[in-house]
Amino acid sequence: MDAKLDFSILKTLTELPGVSGRETAVREYLKNLLKDSADEISTDTLGNLIVFKKGTSDKNLLFCAHMDEVGLMIHFVDERGFLRFVTVGGIDPRTLLAQRVRVQTKSGALLGIIGTKPAHITTEADRGKAVGIKELFIDLGLPADEVKKRVEPGDWAVLDRSYEEFGDGKISAKALDNRAGVFVLAEVVRALKNPFYNVYAVFTVQEEVGLRGATTAAYGVKAD
Questions:
Q1: Which end of the chain is less crowded, N or C, counting CB atoms within 10 A of the terminal residue's CB?
Q2: What is the reported pTM?
Q3: Domain that holds residue 127
Q4: Residue 198: is it exposed, middle or buried by C-beta count within 10 angstroms (0-12/13-18/19+)?
Q5: Which residues are known to be catalytic?
């Protein structure tokens, strides 16, 4: 196996939106990437992408890496056009303030900024407590009526963070959990020739909200 990995694949993977339950963009990219490296590619009912490579034995070997990432789901649009949201997966609210996000709507992605009540109008009581999800909102920079036309409850958002290499071989990007694992598994599939085991590389969904895809894959593949 050539030890040189194609990190442009990881860059692309981290840039794709794929909140738990909304992994379509990641799945479609992987299907195209791996179509010439697999004996069979399928998608199960839950949305897992199953990439199969036939081995010379009758034993099944299962690898899993989850495609989904944590994110936000729009709960409602308030009277000022600010988007109120809940988290999808485990997110510490302290990490969200002033972050850029991409809100995924039916008409396309919209850039927004996460804000809260500005410092000059906070009270002493406000300043003495941690900011929670209920105090945060997404500002799209658009009039309220325009926002309400374009954004619906149930639309979702991902962080807008670029892929950057820094320091001594380090990488900063959104969704490295677990697009890094997806990248490694995809490279294994691309490099693997004539395996002994029947290899099932399963790119799973909804890990961030309860390991749902991996649980389904384990029962579906019946690996040894």
A1: N
A2: 0.91
A3: 71-159
A4: buried
A5: 207
